[in-house]
Design brief:
mainly alpha; 12 helices; about 70% helix; disordered N terminus
């Protein structure tokens, strides 16, 4: 019998077992708000993945101009923003583009950017935070100070400046993902470092290191499996924040360039028409709210299910 087997695993590793996963899923199923969030997130993902087919249900797309749907002043003809059997959500002022198709395609842009930025931020945060706990010493001190500086840095101002002066040759979607992701890791790194330091004091980790296990073995076999719950919850809660950040940058005109649909830019354009066509603002604003709210509900439910102190309630 090995030393690790004799010592046994600490409670933190229970999430990595089949029984632990079943318990988490059972707790999540009992949380009606979390399940509602899961359903909405799944639907939003499906809309983003199959946007061309879903937008094409009414035989339209977000790039075709319909001048016949506009009045002489550029506003939509008819009530409710020009809503009709052909244009379910109405049309965009001045262009006559189908608003339903714009919202559907906008889901692809906003969710893809939010997910990609979250993956980048979480990956950097987990690597930096766990390695700081593993190596300690001067490396930990440097990482901690750098994290504190970035946490206090006015990231939005830098994002705006970078978006305004970055070369046009760089795809705006790539630039937004990079900027949001590179400024999003410090908070994750701080939490991961704290939990990693706690895990490093556990008997099974101490025994593994005493037997000659290297830092990367400890990271792969002991830290990451026990940090999985924290990483999942952090990622789920970070996604809506990053979707909102993309929408804010698009609102300011620094997001993906037109005519690529984006919820933030559509909302920014709709503000100018709020007095004459308030329905133009309703569809993208509701879509943005529902998706971010769904991720928040799911993240809260996962946090409660994975936190043993809450009893999975």
């Amino acid at each position: 019998m090995s030393v690790l087997t004799a010592l046994g695993r600490e409670p933190e590793s229970v999430e990595t077992t089949a029984t632990g996963r079943s318990a988490v899923w059972a707790a999540l199923r009992r949380d009606k708000a979390a399940m509602c969030g899961l359903v909405l997130v799944t639907l939003a993902m499906a809309v983003a993945a199959f946007a061309p087919w879903i937008a094409g249900i009414n035989n339209d797309d977000p790039f075709t101009y319909h001048s016949d749907a506009l009045a002489g002043d550029g506003s939509p003809r008819g009530s409710f923003g020009g809503a009709s059997g052909q244009h379910w959500f109405g049309v965009e002022p001045l262009t006559g583009r189908d608003l339903y198709a714009i919202v559907v395609y906008g889901a692809r842009t906003s969710i893809l950017v939010g997910l990609s930025a979250t993956i980048l931020a979480v990956s950097i945060g987990v690597l930096v935070g766990s390695s700081a706990a593993l190596f300690g010493g001067w490396y930990d001190r440097v990482i901690s100070r750098a994290t504190d500086v970035l946490l206090g840095f006015p990231s939005l101002i830098f994002m705006i400046a970078l978006g305004a002066f970055a070369p046009r040759a760089i795809p705006r979607s790539v630039l937004i993902v990079a900027v949001i992701g590179l400024f999003g890791w410090p908070g994750i790194a701080r939490v991961i470092r704290s939990q990693s330091l706690s895990l490093m004091q556990r008997n099974y980790v101490s025994a593994s290191r005493a037997m000659g296990a290297g830092p990367w073995h400890v990271l792969r076999k002991h830290l990451l499996p026990n940090l999985a719950g924290t990483i999942i919850v952090f990622a789920t809660i970070t996604i809506p924040a990053n979707i909102g950040a993309e929408a804010a940058l698009s609102f300011l005109g620094l997001g993906v360039p037109p005519p690529t649909p984006a919820w933030g830019r559509t909302i920014g354009t709709a503000v100018a028409w709020i007095a004459t066509d308030p329905w133009y603002l309703l569809a993208p604003a509701c879509a943005l709210f529902l998706v971010t709210f769904a991720f928040i509900l799911l993240g809260d439910g996962l946090r409660d299910a994975l936190d043993p102190r809450l009893g999975g309630s």
